[in-house]
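COMPLEX REQUEST
Ligand: iron/sulfur cluster
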Amino acid sequence: MNRRTFFQSVIATVGAVTVFSSLVEAEERRRGGGTPAASAAPQLVDPKDPAAKAVSYVQKNTEIKDKNLQTDRQGVKFANQKCNGCQFYPKDKEATVAGKKAAPCQLPFAAGRSVVSEGWCSSWAKRA
Ligand code: SF4
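STATUS: Structure written out below.
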């Protein structure tokens, strides 16, 4: 290997390592990893998620049009049933998430993500 070939192979190797590192970092960001601050950022439950749909989660209880769901629960009229009055809504963890007042719902379907204070799902239960 002459000097020119040696330097060409060194440059190619450094380039390949740089590209590989960038791809690894991009994959970590895609998976929600990356910096601790980025991974700790609260996220809202997407009402279109299958798990959220299974409990009819909406970001505003007025979006529920099914009359069978619009029932009184534990003596509370449907119109007054909102996440912020549910026993699974930790008011002490309420914060602004994506521009909406929200807190991390304690039910498994939310997987630690936040639900909107004006939201509702079929697991609503009156806060004691
Ligand atoms: S369980 Fe309660 S806090 Fe969680 S989404 Fe349903 S109504 Fe909202």
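REMARKS: The mean pLDDT is 82. The CA atoms of residues 99 and 116 lie 10 Å apart.
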